[in-house]
Amino acid sequence: SVASGKIKWEVMTELEVHSSVVIGEDKTIYVGSGNEDPDDDERGILYALDAQTGKRKWVFKVNAPIHATPT
């Protein structure tokens, strides 16, 4: 947390994260991940995470790696 300076939670992603996170008005955290391997079916995943718990709200798989910050 900001107050304590301690990590509140961590989340494992299926692919590497190359972007910063975005925090929505409803406090949902959005982060993209990606894989450069053209033979891999999972090339990119956008995650929506609960800011309090880190639990996944939803994921969206795409056919290209996500390297930019979601907007």
Major beta sheet summary: 4 strands, antiparallel
The helix count comes to 0
What is the string of SSEs from the N terminus onward?
Answer: EEEE
Question: How much of the sequence is in beta strands?
Answer: 25-35%
Helical content class:
under 10%
Low-confidence stretches: none
Q: Which structural category fits the helices and strands?
A: mainly beta
Protein model, in words:
The structure is a single chain. The protein is mostly beta strands and 71 residues long. Helix content is 0%, strand content 32%. It has strands at 22-23, 28-34, 44-50, 56-62. Strands 1-2-3-4 form a four-stranded antiparallel sheet, with no helix packed on it.
Provide the fold topology.
Blueprint: E1 22-23, E2 28-34, E3 44-50, E4 56-62
Antiparallel strand pairs: 1-2, 2-3, 3-4
In short:
The protein is mostly beta strands and 71 residues long. It has strands at residues 22-23, 28-34, 44-50, 56-62. The two termini are 24 Å apart.
How would you describe this structure in keywords?
71 residues, mainly beta, 4-stranded antiparallel beta sheet
